[in-house]
Automatic annotation (TrEMBL):
Signal peptide: none annotated. This is G-protein coupled receptors family 1 profile domain-containing protein. It comes from Adineta steineri. Keywords: Membrane, Transmembrane, Transmembrane helix. PANTHER family: CNMAMIDE RECEPTOR-RELATED, FMRFAMIDE RECEPTOR-RELATED. Residues 341-354 have a biased composition (Basic and acidic residues). GO terms for molecular function: G protein-coupled receptor activity. Residues 31-288 form the G-protein coupled receptors family 1 profile domain.
Amino acid sequence: MNNSLAYSHVNLTRWVSSIVSPIILLGCAIGNIVSFFVLIRPRLRKQTTSIYLAVLCVVELGTCYTGLLRQFLIDAFNLDIRLINSFTCRTHIYFTYVFARLAPLLLALVTLQRYLYVSQLALCSLRSTCIQIFCCILFVCLAEFHLFLYYDYTHSDTRPRGQNIPFECTVDKIRHNQYYKFRDEIYPKITLIAYTIIPLTIIILGNALLVRTVRQASKRSQSTTNKKRSVTRMLYAVSILYTVLTSPASIFLAIAPANIQLKSWFRISWTVLRLLFYLCHSVNFILFCASGTFFRQELVAFLNSLYFCRSIYPSETIQYENRFLNNNSVRHRTSSTRSNRKQDQNFHEHKHTENTLIVS
């Protein structure tokens, strides 16, 4: 009875993963690639938050295509990239965890940076932003390098060793006994604090402070806060969805013991949590379009700049270009009119001064 139940769980999880995973992977690829090119356009990249979000798109693309793609190949074709040889085992698991760890740290960093910028507590230049992103990436790469050193294509750590037991991509608990204890007992608690609790605390508190600061700024000046609101709303949406969808999987990985993988209900529970986790990394494009006014405008400009969009929608492209040129010409005429008025005013004041001197 237990064997048949476990077999049904395996078939169910593979069926669900084989159907849902390609949809998430396709949405992740299209959404994050388009979002990246829109966010680095000249109008948006003036905001340092857009640089963070552009890097986040690359990180989330890497997260899905190192983690979810591997699981899809296992469920659909019974092919595991990590089981090819020791190098693919170490390389794949290393980059999987690097991308997964970078996402919460980048979100926490951009939330903190956005609050300091909006509240005018610090100036955030493009150079300082690039340095912060580089330091964050370097920290995660060095912190997770132990995975590359100790993981190997070796005997299973959860099953008894024998001739009929296949090798796995794991840590050899006989050769590296001390590290195995560290990975099994201490490392999950460190990652829970460093990559889940601390980033989520910064994200939640930072967004709460951002809401208050933006409301106060909007009372003082409506025109200067429109751009701030547009980019900040995109950050709100990404942060809230990330907190809701990724927290269950992160906490489950941190507190679950290694031998829980042998339970019959583990596969279906972990499949649902895993798909929710990767779904969060594939819907940023929808969130940006729904919450960012300037993002939508730049998205239209980006699509209009593509050759195939021009050939499919030539009239819309011409209308957009004419509207853009008309807006620029209106701004130019307005500025020139103001300049002429100022020159006329200065001329009349000068003539009045000369007449006064002559009379006196």
